[in-house]
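Page 47, continued from p. 46.
Same chain as before, 214 aa.
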Amino acid sequence: MRDVICPLCQQRRGRRACPALKQQICAVCCGTKRLVEIRCPPDCPYLVTAREHPPAAVVRQQRHDLGFLAEFMRDLNARQSQLFFLIATLIAHYKSPDLESIVDDDVAQAAGTLAATFETAARGVIYEHRTASIPAGRLVTALKAALGEAAGSAGSPFERDAAVILRRIEQAARRMNEAGAANSRAFIGLLDRVVQKPDEAPQESKDEPRLIVP
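Result:
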């Protein structure tokens, strides 16, 4: 039988049946691109095993991820910290209406643009700032709608907090970009690893918000 080459790296032999890609991929790509570039289903046997017995490299990655985010969550109060993870969850779970994947630069643009809109609104000026890219603009629309529901009647205090958090997320996404990460979705992948997945969350009542905040 002819060896199957991994379609992701085009170098190593594909020896693992990936249920997400419906193809044979190599163990290295399975381990490094899992939940970052590959949308693994919760019942993937390799994912289940990795969660039950995380290798030392995964533990180090988790510590690095949390340490990186902690820098941008410094001096936030409890309400702002919860809002930080709410927005992080929205970004990690975001699905573009045209199925086009967003990249870290889109996140930075969207966060900065929406922050500017909230900052002007908090000063009593209604002005919709615009992004340079279409994918970032679509992300702004999705974030604004979700945050509008979360805000309720909170008004300016919520807008001020949201602006602070969005600026922090903008800075974090740009920092990772400036670090020269080869993966254009490195920050999005970090958020995806840190926030709680819906299939991992405890059962909630129908009256509770469906957004998952770790």
